[in-house]
Each structure stands twice: as structure tokens, then as C-alpha cells.
Design brief:
Order of helices and strands: HEEHEHEEHHEEEEEEEEEEEHHHH
Distance between the termini: 35 Å
Number of strands: 16
Number of helices: 9
Structural class: alpha+beta
Number of domains: 1
Shape: globular
Helix content: 10-25%
Radius of gyration: 20 Å
């Protein structure tokens, strides 16, 4: 066994380790058409902001192909992704973290098809506000499910404006620092309201709103989806699609929301500081299931064979992940799954009602 596989086993990473690093340009993609007429997949990006003290924000292009992640991050064998944010190597992150009040910082993961697709094919990927509060989990979950499909066009337009501005922002003019759109991989940017970055700083003007009309906050896309969480607090992850009627958007029907999960567990993101260094760790976690014990019919076995096709290459898929990212996990306390906040608050029954499950029972 290789030294890296030994370290993985010693760290208890028995789940499938997946790091889906797309070989895309540094600009954040929103699913515009390729030159050959085929569709691009949108990319996921991370946003951190302090709207209270420093009035600054940081955006990182994760370079993760969202459509591939939708498949790879829901395997019954489990999945894990780790990304280290290091202020020593990312000057934009260093500028943000040095001036921000960490207790006020909020983070989110999102992305979507704001460009180049028919409305019926568009989608939003988004975290959800947890805040260590069962009441918040319930309120924001219900709010998201109340969004009408006809409002998705407006929501995606809001996202597209922000991302396109970031992609074309000029350092020192439109944004303080940025490598988004200019590096061969990823790219990050640092914006400041005090520096006059009105189109790249994350406040109500650029679509990062509170529930009160016109206020700043961590709800996004015209305030439809509340997605921000404090550092150290995790969030489940969702794919949002419009309801369709005969192949077209049914504007008066609520959006369809599907959670990243497998037959036993829900996938969630977390962002936490390494207590032994200046680094931060962004992680996606999906606990593994034991699918062979959960199917007893031909239909179930067919579903299992189809869903897990990409997990057959081995016990770990180390795609675009460095040994340092793996080794760092031994020093970092895991961010609890959102379910744990509800359990700690005595709300296990209510929380279970809030969590959406795929209809896997029908395939068993």
C-alpha cells in the first residue's frame, strides 16, 4: 500500500475521496455554450463576506464542474472533498481574513446556469442557512420551497450579473485584488466597499440581501435562498430546478429542490479554521452507505449498478487533491453535520421532517 493510502486509512477516510477539479478556465463558468454548440457545466464557487465590520468579501472559483459533482458527490460508497485555504499562498484570502471580524463572517457555496441555456434547463446549486438553529433550518428550508419557478429567471439573472462582473473585474479599479479570469486554475478575488468596489462587494446592491427589504445579508438571488453560515457551521447542499409542464417552465408552480444525498446520508459542506495553523479547510462530506444490504429486488440492483458506476475505480479517487490537503485533516476537528445541531437542540423529530430523501425505497 502506498504511503498516501496508508495515511488515508489512518485518518479514517473510509469513504470515497472525491476532489472534482475541472480543467476549466479560471473565469467562473455559468454554462454558456461552447464553441462547438455543446453546453458547458456551471462551476461552483465559494463566497465569504463580512458585511458588519470590514465590509469586505472574498470569492474563490472552486473549479468544480457542478454537473459532475451532482453524480460523484452522491455515491452510496460515500464521498469527501477537501480544499485548503491558505493565506500564505492566496493574497486575496489573506487580505480578507486579516481584516474581517471572524464572528461576523458568513460563507456559502453556490453556482448555476445563468447563461446559454433554455430556461427549462437551468439550475441553481446552493447551501442553506443553518446558524446552529433548528428554527433557522426550518424557516429557510420552507422559504426556499416557496420560491416559484417563474422567479428562477430573475434569480439566475442576479447571479449572472455578479459572476460576470467578477470575471471581468480590473484589479485596483473594480476590485482590490483578483486572479479570477486570469489564472490557469481557480482564481480568487478580494473586494471592499470602502474601496468603492460597488459591483464586486457582496451586499444588497450585488444581490446578497437580508430578509428585510433593501438590507444587506446572506440571502441571495433576490433574497429567495438564504445560504450563508458562520465559520464552523455546516450546511446541506441542494440542487434547485424549475417545475416543468410539457417541457416548459410552469411559472406558477414551486421550484423542485433535490438534496445531495445517498440512500443513508446527506451531503454537507463545512468551513473551519485549522487550530494549529493559519489555514482554513473547506470540506464536503457524504457518509457511505452499505448498499448491498439495502436492495433485494432486480430493480434495486439495477439502480445500484447505475448510480455507483463511477465508484468502481477503487477505494479512493484522488483527483486534483494534494497530500497536504489530506494530511491536514488529522489536525482539524470535523464540522458537525447540520443534523447534529437539530439533535443537540432536541429537535430530531422535526429535523427528520425537514430533510428531503430521494425515493430510494421504490427501487429496493
Amino acid at each position: 500500500m502506498s504511503p498516501l493510502h496508508t495515511r488515508l486509512r489512518n485518518l479514517g477516510l473510509a469513504s470515497l475521496l472525491v476532489a472534482l477539479q475541472a480543467s476549466a478556465p479560471a473565469a467562473i463558468l455559468g454554462a454558456a455554450l461552447n464553441s462547438d454548440g455543446t453546453n458547458q457545466s456551471p462551476e461552483l464557487f465559494l463566497v465569504l463576506f463580512d458585511q458588519t465590520t470590514s465590509k469586505t468579501s472574498y470569492t474563490l472559483n472552486l473549479g468544480i464542474d457542478a454537473a459532475n459533482f451532482w453524480v460523484q458527490a452522491q455515491q452510496d460508497t460515500g464521498a469527501s472533498l477537501f480544499r485548503t485555504l491558505d493565506p500564505a499562498t492566496d493574497s486575496a484570502f489573506n487580505s480578507f481574513i486579516s481584516g474581517a471580524n471572524l464572528s461576523n463572517v458568513r460563507w456559502m457555496i453556490t453556482g448555476g446556469t445563468f447563461d446559454g441555456r433554455a430556461e427549462a434547463d437551468r439550475v441553481i446549486y446552493v447551501t442553506q442557512t443553518n446558524n446552529n438553529s433548528l428554527a433557522d433550518q426550518r424557516a429557510f428550508y420552507d422559504r426556499a420551497h416557496g420560491v416559484l419557478s417563474g422567479d428562477m429567471t430573475t434569480a439566475l439573472s442576479s447571479m449572472g450579473t455578479y459572476v460576470k462582473t467578477l470575471n471581468g473585474a480590473r484589479p485596483g479599479i473594480d476590485i482590490v485584488q483578483s486572479t479570477i479570469g486570469s489564472t490557469s486554475r481557480g482564481g480568487s478575488g478580494f473586494a471592499s466597499k470602502l474601496a468603492g468596489n460597488t459591483a464586486t462587494y457582496t451586499d444588497a446592491t450585488t444581490g446578497f440581501k437580508g430578509l428585510a427589504t433593501g438590507s444587506d445579508g446572506s440571502c441571495i438571488y433576490q433574497g429567495f435562498f438564504c445560504a450563508g453560515n458562520p465559520l464552523g457551521v455546516s450546511s446541506w447542499f441542494y440542487k434547485v430546478m424549475p417545475s416543468l409542464l410539457e417541457g416548459e417552465i410552469d411559472p406558477s408552480s414551486p421550484v423542485v429542490i433535490d438534496e445531495f444525498d445517498n440512500v443513508n446520508a446527506d451531503g454537507y459542506w463545512g468551513l473551519i479554521k485549522d487550530p494549529n495553523s493559519s489555514k482554513y479547510v473547506l470540506s464536503y462530506t457524504l457518509a457511505g452507505a452499505n448498499p448491498s444490504t439495502l436492495v433485494s429486488t432486480d430493480g434495486g440492483r439495477t439502480r445500484l449498478a447505475f448510480v455507483d458506476y463511477s465508484a468502481q475505480s477503487g477505494i479512493a479517487r484522488l483527483i486534483g487533491i494534494s497530500a497536504d490537503d489530506v494530511a491536514l485533516q488529522s489536525t482539524v476537528t470535523a464540522v458537525p453535520e447540520p443534523a447534529q445541531w437539530g439533535l443537540l437542540l432536541g429537535g430530531a423529530g422535526l429535523l427528520a421532517a425537514l430533510r428531503r430523501r430521494k425515493a430510494s425505497c421504490s427501487a429496493r
